[in-house]
Design brief:
This protein is α+β, with helices and mostly antiparallel strands. The chain has one domain. 28% of the residues lie in helices and 8% in strands. It has a four-stranded mixed sheet.
Length: 213
C-alpha cells in the first residue's frame, strides 16, 4: 500500500467497507442505532465526494457520502494494511502496540486487545461481518456471526478465479497482487459470487434478526 493509498484509506470512509452489520437488540432505535462499518483497501481520492477526477464516475459512493459525514482530514495510523486495520479495530496506535508490518500477527502482538465487534456485542448489539476486515484473519471469538464461517479464520467468500491474466501488466515481483490486472467476466454477479454474496449472508440475516428481536 502506498503512502497516498494508506492516507486515503481511512479518509475514504471511516465507516469502512464491508461489512460489519451491527444491529441493536433491546434499546429503541433512536438510542441504539444500527451501524454499518465499511472497510475498503487502497481507495484513492478520485471519487466524487472527495473532489473526484474527470475520468471517474462514482454515483453510489457519492450518494453514500452525501447521506453521512465525510472525513477530509483523517489519516490512517500505519502505511500498510495490517497495522492500519489493527489500530483502527483495537484503538491501539502502532507506536504503542509495536505492530508496524504486514508480516506480524495481530494476536501475537496484542493477545488481549478487544476489537470493535466484540465491544459492540458486549453492549447490546449483534455483530456480524464478511470479507477482509482484519489482515487475512477473522478473529472468530470477537463476532456473533461471519461469512464465510468464522471458525475457518479465512475471511474471503468463494469467488470465481481470475484464470489467465488478461493484460499481463508488468509487476515489481511475484509478491505483487495481480487482481488489478483485470478484464471483464462474462458471468453474472451471482455467478461470480465474492462480494455479491457478502450482504446476502450478513446484512439480510441481520435484518431478520432485528425483526425477530
Amino acid at each position: 500500500m502506498t503512502s497516498l493509498h494508506a492516507m486515503t484509506m481511512n479518509r475514504v470512509l471511516l465507516r469502512w467497507l464491508l461489512p460489519l452489520m451491527l444491529a441493536g437488540r433491546s434499546l429503541p432505535a433512536a438510542e441504539h442505532p444500527n451501524v454499518l462499518f465499511i472497510a475498503l483497501d487502497d481507495q484513492n481520492d478520485w471519487i466524487g465526494c472527495f473532489g473526484g477526477n474527470p475520468q471517474t464516475r462514482t454515483p453510489n459512493i457519492d450518494r453514500l457520502g452525501a447521506s453521512g459525514v465525510v472525513f477530509e482530514a483523517a489519516y490512517c495510523p500505519g502505511a500498510a494494511c495490517n497495522p492500519s486495520r489493527s489500530a483502527l479495530f483495537t484503538g491501539i496506535p502502532c507506536h504503542r502496540s509495536g505492530l508496524y508490518s504486514n508480516r506480524q500477527q495481530m494476536r501475537e502482538v496484542l493477545p488481549d486487545a478487544k476489537i470493535i465487534p466484540h465491544y459492540f456485542s458486549q453492549n447490546g448489539y449483534w455483530s456480524a461481518g464478511s470479507g477482509k476486515m482484519l489482515h487475512y484473519f477473522i478473529d472468530a471469538p470477537s463476532w456473533d456471526d461471519y461469512y464465510p464461517d468464522k471458525e475457518r479464520e479465512d475471511p474471503f467468500p468463494p469467488w470465481m478465479k481470475f484464470g489467465r491474466r488478461p493484460k499481463s501488466l508488468p509487476r515489481a515481483g511475484d509478491w505483487q497482487y495481480v487482481e488489478t490486472d483485470w478484464g471483464a467476466f462474462d458471468v453474472s454477479d451471482a455467478e461470480f459470487q465474492g462480494d455479491y454474496l457478502a450482504p446476502r449472508q450478513t446484512v439480510l440475516p441481520g435484518l431478520r434478526h432485528l425483526s425477530s428481536a
